[in-house]
Amino acid sequence: MPLIAGYHRPTDLTEALDLLSTPGRIALAGGTVINADREPSDLEVVDLQSLNLDDITVENGVAQVGAMVRLDNLAHTFSGDLIGEASQRELPSTLRTLATVGGTVGAAMRDSLLLTAMLASACNVHYADGESAPLTSAIPSANRLITRVDFVAHGEWSIHSTARTPKDTPIVAAVGRRIGDRLHLAISGVADTPVFLSDTTDLTSLEPRGDFRGSAEYRLDVAQTLVRRIEKELA
Ligand SMILES: Cc1cc2nc3c(=O)[nH]c(=O)nc-3n(C[C@H](O)[C@H](O)[C@H](O)COP(=O)(O)OP(=O)(O)OC[C@H]3O[C@@H](n4cnc5c(N)ncnc54)[C@H](O)[C@@H]3O)c2cc1C
Fold first, then answer.
1. What percent of the residues of the chain are helix, what percent strand, and what percent coil, each to the nearest 5?
2. Which residue, judged by its Cα, is nearest atom 47 of ligand 1?
3. β-pair partners for 187
4. SS3 call for 212
5. Residue 1 resides in a domain
6. With a threshold of 0.85, does the pTM exceed it?
7. How much is the average pLDDT of 4-11?
8. Is there a smaller number of Cβ atoms within 10 Å at the N or the C end of the chain?
9. Max Cα distance, the chain (Å)
10. Last residue of a domain, one of 152, 172, 190
11. Per the domain annotation, does 210 fall within a domain?
């Protein structure tokens, strides 16, 4: 755990927003990113656990999920669907019971399979100020308090990925979901955050950061192959 300078636990959104308006304070959800080390810091955390942001409702195939819902809960609730599968694969079970939906959007990790799956599921992000925006325009999150997300949770889907072992975090993963007559595609591992592939996205124009798991050229080449496989499978 980092050596945080202060801890606050608001009980309503107004109090939470008021606390977060002071510079140097950040939202604390599951804490798997925030509490990942023991470096000294000046950070004060605003714990979201008493804000009642843990509801899940599904109506006409569209899910509304509170920001504090844990990935383990998502994996069970949406078992058999793309979102359940991506939640299950995102983290080992001990971390899944801590990590939250809001934290996944807030952390916006480039390898996040769940974030990639949400991008392919027409996800909208709702904020404490009452506004909402498509996830495609909300990454990286502009330090606004997320209260819930909604996304399509039905329809044909597919994940194709490459990793060092089948259980390892994918180096590159392509995700597709058919919504109506349209195929929604998103991909991880080829930019600083997962990318939604619109009709006009040119995969070859992306500039991934290479690392020990795969060079930039390798990532781009694999990405094109994985996307072709999904297009063929869900044609
Ligand atoms: C060992 C380990 C392995 C990991 N492996 C992976 C992996 O394979 N793939 C992956 O994607 N991630 C991985 N992570 C990162 C992390 O587990 C996920 O990103 C997780 O979903 C973060 O959720 P959290 O609730 O724990 O977030 P927290 O740590 O609480 O917060 C993360 C960030 O999001 C912000 N935030 C949290 N909630 C909100 C909200 N409601 N509104 C606005 N901002 C908010 C916080 O202020 C912080 O900046 C790993 C972490 C660890 C420790």
1. 30, 25, 45
2. 27
3. 174, 195
4. coil
5. no
6. yes
7. 93
8. C
9. 53
10. 152
11. yes
Domain count, the chain: 3
- 110 alpha carbon – ligand 1 mean position (Å): 12
Cα(191) to centroid of ligand 1, in Å? 18
Pocket test of ligand 1: the residue of 22, 28, 32 to mutate, having most ligand atoms within 8 Å of its CB, is: 32
DSSP-derived secondary structure letter, 120 = T
Task: Give the separation between CA 31 and CA 189, rounded to whole angstroms.
Answer: 23
Closest ligand 1 atom number to CA of residue 34: 29
CATH number for position 201: 3.30.390.50
* Residues 26, 94 within the same domain: no
Query: Please, are residues 164 and 109 in contact by the beta-carbon 8 Å criterion?
Result: no
Whether residue 81 lies inside any domain: the answer is yes
Q: What pLDDT sits at residue 141?
A: 59
104 alpha carbon to ligand 1 midpoint, in Å?
5
pLDDT digits (tens, 9 = 90+) for 151-189: 999 999 999 999 998 888 999 999 999 999 999 999 999
Tell me how far the alpha carbon of residue 35 lies from the centroid of ligand 1, in angstroms: 10
Atom of ligand 1 nearest to the CA of 68: 41
Residue 106 alpha carbon to ligand 1 centre in Å? 7
Question: The domain spanning residue 145 has which CATH number?
Answer: 3.30.465.10
Q: Are 83 and 146 found together in one domain? A: yes
Each as own residue / partner, the long-range contacts of residues 228-234 (CB below 8 Å, 24 or more positions apart, any chain) are 229/158, 229/160, 229/174, 230/158, 230/160, 230/174, 230/175, 230/176, 230/183, 230/185, 231/176, 231/183, 231/185, 233/158, 233/160, 233/176, 234/156, 234/157, 234/158, 234/176, 234/178, 234/183
Print the domain residue range for 218: 157-233
